[in-house]
């Protein structure tokens, strides 16, 4: 597999051509060679790079984080400690988000307990609470 078109790369990597152009524009993937008629031709190894990007996104890394991880990977002689530290920070971020989501869940559970679903919507304590902006519940 040599010199893949943008459509073929999109199909093999599971992303859209729009995504590929975006990754190219923000320099997550290198600019491909172009044919005389302007068609993009990617090397076969671009597929593994795009899959890496997609997997890292699934793990919650931002595109900037992914760019940094790819740059670190390209420094063949560097140690893995910067990668490890980035993942440790991501774990802290995830824990913080989980904590925030638990607070939201508790608030919603308290709110739903105040509404039996039988009253007029304008008297619904859930709506009243959201309108009031009371963050204490």
Task: List low-pLDDT spans.
Answer: none
Oligomer: single chain
Overall 3D shape: elongated
For this structure, what is the CATH class of the largest domain? Mainly Alpha
Q: From the 3D structure, determine the CATH topology of the largest domain.
A: Multidrug-efflux Transporter Regulator, Chain: A, Domain 2
- Count of strand segments: 2
Give the spatial strand order of the biggest sheet. 1-2
Please give the count of helices: 6
Helix percentage range = 55-70%
Overall pLDDT metric: 93
Structural class: mainly alpha
Q: How many domains would you count in the coordinates?
A: 2
> What's the order of the H and E elements?
HHEEHHHH
Key attributes of the depicted protein:
137 residues, mainly alpha, Multidrug-efflux Transporter Regulator, Chain: A, Domain 2, 2 domains, 6 helices, 3% strand
